[in-house]
Amino acid sequence: MLDMIDIQDIVKEFDGNIVLTGVTETIQRGEIFAIIGPSGQGKTTLLRILGLLLKPTSGRILFEEKSITHLSDSDPVRRRFGMVFQSPVAFKDSVYHNIALGLRYRGFSKEAIREKVLQKLDEIGLTGYENRKATTLSGGEKQRVSLARVMVTGPDVLILDEPTANLDPVSTEVIEDLIRHYNKNLGTTVILSTHDLMQGQRLADRVAVMMNGRFIQSGPIFDVFTRPCSEDVAKFIGISNVLSGKIIRKEEGMSVILVDGTEIHALAEDPVGTQVKIAIRPEEITLHTGPDRLSSARNILFGIVEAVRPFGIISLISVKSGDLVLSVQVTWQSIKELDLKPGVQVTLSFKAPSVHIMPDENSHAC
Fold first, then answer.
1. Rounded to a whole number, what is the distance in angstroms from the first to the last CA of the chain?
2. Residue 1 — very low, low, confident or very high, per pLDDT cuts 50/70/90?
3. Computed from CA positions of residues 213, 219, 220, 225, in that sequence, does the dihedral angle turn out positive or negative?
4. Strand, coil or helix: 130
5. What is the average pLDDT value for the chain, to the nearest integer?
6. Which of 51, 92, 166, 173 maximizes the CB count within 10 A of its CB?
């Protein structure tokens, strides 16, 4: 992929309040780039800057190696960007005229407009809705119309701010399928923000985590979700087992880390004596109610169930082993079969590569 958008040290202030601070990233042509992070961290502000609706206080945005930071309102480059907002926008007119809006502004003939609008209606699954009042549609239908209104003009870059935040699962799936279609079949570069971590993993080629007005980690989906760079990122992406420890020795090519009085084997290059944070995904830990004689895992711990917390068809089991407490992901069927409840003795096992090492945040920046 070729670089398409170069974000260089973007800062944005509102009345002395710094919302974005030094945001830097390169977005490649034809990729889906997702921005995730807690609420109020600057995601929408950055998207509005990328969508040419706001100007940064400082920094530059390059598009195909040319600055678009301070474009005039009439600059034709603006037509190469389209943005869909979190709340679906439906004008008080027919679905047909809602979708045709941008084409009319661009001077297309009535025949061309009709052809393009009907094609988009078919594409979004709303054939026959052209004469319906757009304001009477459901939230999911309105969002499809919003997408069609933007995409009918053929932008090179589609920017989406929480596009499915208020939609039911069925409508969400429809919107996600449309996003994939625009990206894979039309070659549209997509930049989206989302609170839905699973959505980010389903759609994106790369992801950036935004906290405190800056990207603190970005990269391919697998890297970010399996190798978080800090405790804040690890907890945000759902790793509940984040613990402090110290490397106390090297053993058979591995590091032995003392965590709350328990020795844990991990793959780490840091020297003995280094203070570290470790992250272990709950789904990487295997739970047994008897000895785990078949496991090849280097880490085998014995403990007692402290709590069972249901999350739909899975549950998080809190297990205390000495002073160490770990969360383990278990299916409801396993809970039933193993009769898991507080007080039950269990065995936990996990491999050394499942232990992700992070710098101690007291002495290292992410």
1. 27
2. low
3. negative
4. coil
5. 92
6. 51
**What's the CA gap between 285 and 292, in Å, rounded?**
12
- Give the amino acid at 310: P
Over the stretch 49-83, which tens digit does the pLDDT of each residue have? 999 999 999 999 999 999 999 998 889 999 999 99
**If DSSP codes are grouped into helix, strand and coil, which group holds residue 42?**
coil
Tokens of residue 284, six digits: 């990487």
Distance CA 256, CA 268 (A): 9
> C-alpha 113: how far from its chain's center?
36
2 has a pLDDT exceeding 90: no
Residue type, 185: N
Lookup: tokens for 105: 């502004």
Domains of the chain are: 3-226 (3.40.50.300), 232-358 (2.40.50.100)
* Span 299-320, pLDDT tens digits: 999 999 999 998 888 899 999 9
| pTM of the predicted model over 0.85 | yes
CA distances from 112 to 69, 97, 108, 118, 125 (A): 33, 13, 6, 10, 20
Q: Which of 177, 213, 218, 223 is nearest to 28 (CA)?
A: 218
Partners of 315 in the β-ladder: 310, 330
Q: Which residues contact 177 (CB under 8 A, 6 or more apart)?
A: none
Q: Which amino acid is at 20?
A: L
- Stretch (H or E) spanning 308: strand 299-311
- pLDDT value, residue 365: 46
